[in-house]
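Cross-posted from the bioinformatics board.
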Amino acid sequence: MNALTGTGGKLKLIQAALRLITETRSLTSLGLRELAREAGLNPNTFYRHFKNLDEFGLQVLGYIAEDMKAGVRELRQMADSSEQASHDTVAFVYRYFLSNPAATTVAVRELHGPSPALRRALESQLEASAREMAEDIIERQLVSAVPPETVHEISRMTIRYILFRAMDYVEKPAQRETIQTETEHFINRQFRGAMLDHLSQTDVERLALKHT
Amino acid sequence: MNALTGTGGKLKLIQAALRLITETRSLTSLGLRELAREAGLNPNTFYRHFKNLDEFGLQVLGYIAEDMKAGVRELRQMADSSEQASHDTVAFVYRYFLSNPAATTVAVRELHGPSPALRRALESQLEASAREMAEDIIERQLVSAVPPETVHEISRMTIRYILFRAMDYVEKPAQRETIQTETEHFINRQFRGAMLDHLSQTDVERLALKHT
DNA sequence: CAGCAAAGTAGACAGTCGTATACTTCAAAA
DNA sequence: TTTTGAAGTATACGACTGTCTACTTTGCTG
């Protein structure tokens, strides 16, 4: 039975984990009995579904990944100019994080967390998202003046940047607007700067001054 | 007695914590007895120095902060062009992280960790570092074409970016060169992009194409 | 040297934890 | 309807945890 399709204890345990993590816990620090208690199950039921806590962690990550992929796929057909695209995409992505606070917290917390296995799993997932984003940008020629390799590099940076800020976005409503516009700045400056990679610093300064 | 000046149990406990965290632990997950064991002390000695584990965490953070400040202060008088400065500074900062792996891991791990108190402490510390960096850049007029407020914004982003990559830098020797050059790209593109904030996207594209 | 406070130790308390074994419930296949 | 395997429960084990009280050692000060 898949983690997503089950109606029984397995799903209950995973959801209990997400509930606990949202407060002040980390996936790695969750206990088997604690999970069962939160899920309203006998501690030993855990063993019917998972070999140990490590496997549990990986399955929770898988559960979240499935969720995220579905969300991200929606934003494929959006605006057509680069700046327009970044604005809409950023708004969309943060809205997604906002509606999945537990998943967001887990991802941020475990990406640098104590478990190497979870770190690796999350990293390869981020890598995949970044690749998707880069290929989308290249395909639609949103920034044709930037070489593909650079687009990939910037995509990787952007994905990470957004993820880290997502936690603040979720937790601090007052800062949401700021975070969103700063993220747009981040992306636009990154791509604009990359367009000028082949120029010297003085050239760029001259250009900037000339067009004021 | 300050955490830094003690020769006895207090310092031993803090150093034990740093030793444990470097492997696969997080500051928040450390146990009192575990610390004492690693430090070669009786568990109850802990209570002679700290009220509880939360206070201990904060003191460890303070210990690390003291360390970092001393390191960062060294890089004040370096190169004079912006690009030169970013190159040397990035190299220096990563070298610092490399020689303090435990402090690096703690900072990265707790910045998004489960304890709100530690998160807050680390954030205000990063904020201070970012402010210092921005004021330094403004004072020395390294990027005079960018307004002060923007310099502050970019500094905040840069500090965070470097910190996150620092963990990979420490743990994955094979990627060190890549991380260093990508960080330089990040900074240069950010500032170059900011110099063109007042232009439209088509203007920038035209400029980029004209100078190839 | 005496006194005293800080640092460190010893032992015990009630909890929690992960795990193992054995038992019951239940639903679907034979 | 009987069989069978999965899901869930009950109980128990040893190990570890944070905390408490009481005791001993250490080093400094008067």
